[in-house]
Amino acid sequence: MRVKAAVLRQMGLPLPYAQSQPVSIEEVELAPPAQGEVLLRIHAAGLCHSDLSAINGDRPWPMPIVIGHEAAAEVVELGEGVTDLAVGDHVVLIFRPSCGACPSCSVGRPALCGPGGEANAAGTLLGGYRRLASVAGTGIDGLAGGPLHHHLGCAAFAEYATVSRRSVVRIDPALPWDEAALFGCAVITGAGAAYNTARQVVAVDMLESKLELARSLGASACVNAADPDAITKVRDLTGGGVDYAFEMAGNVAALELAYRITARGGTTVTAGLPNPAARWSLQAVSLIAEERTLKGSYVGSCVPARDVPRFIAMYRQGLLPVDRLLSERIRLEDINPALDRLARGESIRQVMMMS
Question: How buried is 43 (Cβ within 10 angstroms: 0-12 exposed, 13-18 middle, 19+ buried)?
């Protein structure tokens, strides 16, 4: 079938993206689901910094690629062997498919699935397959048709997507599409990294608008990271530093700040994804002498089949104000100027409404 999709053919084009137009909305060919796969109708998709990192080249991917990884969708066709889903089911996409059999999956750590990571890096579905192709003459510069890659096994910025069954989790159909989309990345990454660990919450950001939102959501205190005394202020507010610091920006300077505001005996958690070339000089003795812990969190260290329904239940109980993360609703055709707003830090989550 032919569908509209957001195609990236060249990384690293200059800002503003409204002018350089790195993403083109094209008609592409989508193959039906094969063994262990499902065909989805995408209803809503969130625009995330992981998408921006593909645009600016911080996270290199094979080109050309249909981008997008955070979405809510409806099952419209089942591939052979898929018996635990039904046509009409509502699902969210999970950006790290898990094979269920590798050593990481076997010990309950699907976010570290080896075959899932290999497939993502190659721009394929789990198992090494591609189900997308260009239609000759529809791409920028009249490029001929050819295979397209899948961003993080999802390729979610499209009207429809064929994905591995291992890339979706069924959800309650009563949840609105725009809110449901956020559970595929924003919620499981953030809530998964922080849930049941923090007590006093100190919000740190460069933008006062985001700090104001943090205050309204219950932050105990807010500190602007641009303040040259930011580290001292956080340490003063918390009596020597926080027990847990979470770096979510994928920025080495932010990670340095997070580590420096962590107290002796505390834990610094990083869930952002910086450029692979980024390096950070750590005073190694502080890990030992201050009994520090520095750890990464990918997909919020979640088991999606367990945690997505759990976080949805918490949202419905008023414990996770997920709807407050939704900045604006946009169309697929609005993606390039929306990327500019994301790059400037002006939005929390923009959600593309496909239907």
Answer: buried
DSSP strand pairing (221-224 vs 202-205): parallel
At residue 168, does pLDDT exceed 80? yes
Task: Identify the pLDDT of residue 355.
Answer: 75
| Cβ contacts of 83 within 8 Å, gap of 6 or more | none
Q: What angle do CA 266, 269, 270 make, to 5 degrees?
A: 150
What CA–CA distance (Å, rounded) separates 203 from 220?
Answer: 8
pLDDT tens for 147-165 read 999 999 999 999 999 999 9
Q: What is the mean pLDDT of residues 127-143?
A: 76
Query: Is 127 in contact with 119 (CB distance < 8 Å)?
Result: yes
Q: Which domains does the chain have, with CATH numbers?
A: 2-184+321-353 (3.90.180.10), 194-297 (3.40.50.720)
Cis peptide before 64 (omega within 30 of 0): yes
User: What phi and psi values does residue 155 have, to the nearest 5 degrees?
Assistant: 50, 55
Produce one character per residue of 260-270: b if its CB has 16 or more CB atoms within 10 Å, e if not.
bbbbeebbbbb
Of 72-81, 101-110, 185-194, the range with the lowest mean pLDDT is 185-194
